[in-house]
Design goal:
mainly beta; Protein Transport Mog1p, Chain A; 8-stranded antiparallel β-sheet; 4 helices; 12% helix; disordered N terminus
Length: 335
Amino acid sequence: MRHRIFLAAPLAALTLHGCSQQPVPQDDSAAVPSPTPATTAGPGSPADPLTDWSRYRNARFDFVAQLPPGFSADPAPANDDGRVFRNGLVEFRVSGSHNALDRAFAAQVDAATEGLSDVQEIAALPGYWRGTGQDSAGNRVWLMLARPDSSRLVTARFAYPADRDAAFAATAERALKGVMLIAQQGPVGLRYDPAQHAAVETEVTLPPDHHQRHDALKLIARDRLDRIGETACRYGLSGREQRCTPGKEAGLAIAVADAPIGTIRSRIDTLRHQPSELAGRKGFRVVEGAEGQGASFAFVPLGERTAVVERMWRGDRDGNGFQAALRSIEIAYGS
């Protein structure tokens, strides 16, 4: 099937919208709120219990940014592509754009860094780039670019006078790392850290016979992203190289089954049921696995439908950083 790549979430918040098809995290306003404590410092961001950060959410391009205290917003642009926040001579700009010219990601990075000197690359991954440079006005510039998919780009830019580096470098790094993307599968939405994960479209098959297939959005380790479609993966115990597919990758997949949870429950041997709860909704889960690999399937009610969360692990790949990434995922439910 078609595998659309969303570049880039943490297990902490799935937002269920009953029958709504709107993008899900809704606790963030498109307008700038008064500074309030953020519920999380953001995936990959250093926690600072002495600092209260607020959030800005852009519904048009589906991203969330964390705002340092003391910053105020410029008027919102008519096209609602993002916002500019200022604190004196310090500027934090975050926005989305369409890839109308169908540029490769490397070309987008080149365009964003044009005019900067002393460009230092901090992170370079498929669809994600972060680095620093200096502009012609003598400002230190921190940049982050992330592609939710090939047609869109989210850019964050934090700039301040270069002689204030000691005062603002840590804040700039945290602000860029705190930018999250939002992906959605049906009424279920995910916030995710584009530096850690990639989200790809795939399918999940449900126990017990795995004949039922459902479209799913799956989070996989970003360092595996460029292998998808290549004959470069070893799954199972055969040791032979196989075609890399999202369905066989360790990760977290989310789907919506068009059947109530009671119907799904009745199809699976009750001896295999284990209680499960996600974001206050009680359901059940089933675990399958052998020889260091397996999957768990959690089911929670979603009106007359059922939300399905499949977590797949493969040997040491799951314990080699993916568990920590899952703990940072926000899966927010709302109905």
